[in-house]
Amino acid sequence: MSKKLPPLSSLRVFEAAARHCSFTRASNELGMTQAAVSYQIKILEERVGAPLFLRRPRQVSLTETGERLAPAVSEAFEILREAFSIAEDSTQGMLSITTVSTFAVCFLAERIGKFQIKYEDLAVRLDTASYIIDFAREEFDLAIRAGKGDWPGLEKHLLIPAEFSPMLSPELADSVGGIKQPSDLFKLPFIDPGDPWWKIWFDAMETPSDELNCRPRNRMGTQILEAKAAEAGQGVAVLTPVFYREALNSGRLIQPFERVCCDDFGYWLVYPKARRNHPKIRKFRDWVLEEVKEHYAREEVAKQKRRERGDVIL
């Protein structure tokens, strides 16, 4: 069997077509005709000795052979791109980060300055987006995503589990004589009664939650907006307490029950595997993981103080 590599042009076309599952979109990306794309794929299939795509009207999909080949080819091109990126002069480098808004506002915003002081030669571009970016098509170095961590082809580091518990303003709690048991929460408006976190939490507290189905389906889209509404006394929100330590310590919000729950979701630092040794990614990764560690240490101290003040029901 020949050990010579197939033509790089054919591999490049295959990588784009496999990523898009479309010869048309691959041709648009590469600035080629669709016929040229088909020809390059045919060259590669002849070299492999097996079809790489199943052709259907207006649609193509990878064969089993193509499925095995695509990840390796994609990673190889990513390694090549990364090698050329590292070779560039990085003294005036830019670190581009995309993140969900809640993590940006509640964690990164008050800390990113420390990173920039530590690494003065590295500028930071921070972008918030609710959609999942494609590293192969968008110019971001790394991302902070909310989810289960099931993103193939990426290095993943869990930063903060999405723990949750009811939170509200002390004035709202006082308006019904205080919150002494979970059922007392039903005396108040819920900011997002359709949030699945509510049922999980009430089930853990062995409290029926059927009444939630009768509440208006208000939604604000992001947790940070729900927290602001809760601070303003608009209702009870189910939030991640570790994000709102300052509001809890100052008394703008209270967490009436210490019980927190967690589903499979969390906030993750992710980046392509081929970039794991890039200096600027390594710098940010090590820094943010240390910041998370210190944050949780301070949170434990603050939590103990709230227990001593009787702010939570154990």
UniProtKB/TrEMBL annotation:
Keywords: DNA-binding, Transcription, Transcription regulation. Pfam families: HTH_1, LysR_substrate. The keyword Membrane does not apply. Gene3D superfamilies: Periplasmic binding protein-like II (3.40.190.10), Winged helix-like DNA-binding domain superfamily/Winged helix DNA-binding domain (1.10.10.10). InterPro entries: LysR-type_TF_proteobact-type, LysR_HTH_N, LysR_subst-bd, WH-like_DNA-bd_sf, WH_DNA-bd_sf. Residues 6-63 form the HTH lysR-type domain. Belongs to the LysR transcriptional regulatory family. PANTHER family: GLYCINE CLEAVAGE SYSTEM TRANSCRIPTIONAL ACTIVATOR, HTH-TYPE TRANSCRIPTIONAL REGULATOR. This is LysR substrate-binding domain-containing protein. It comes from Kiloniella antarctica. The lineage of its organism: Bacteria, Pseudomonadati, Pseudomonadota, Alphaproteobacteria, Rhodospirillales.
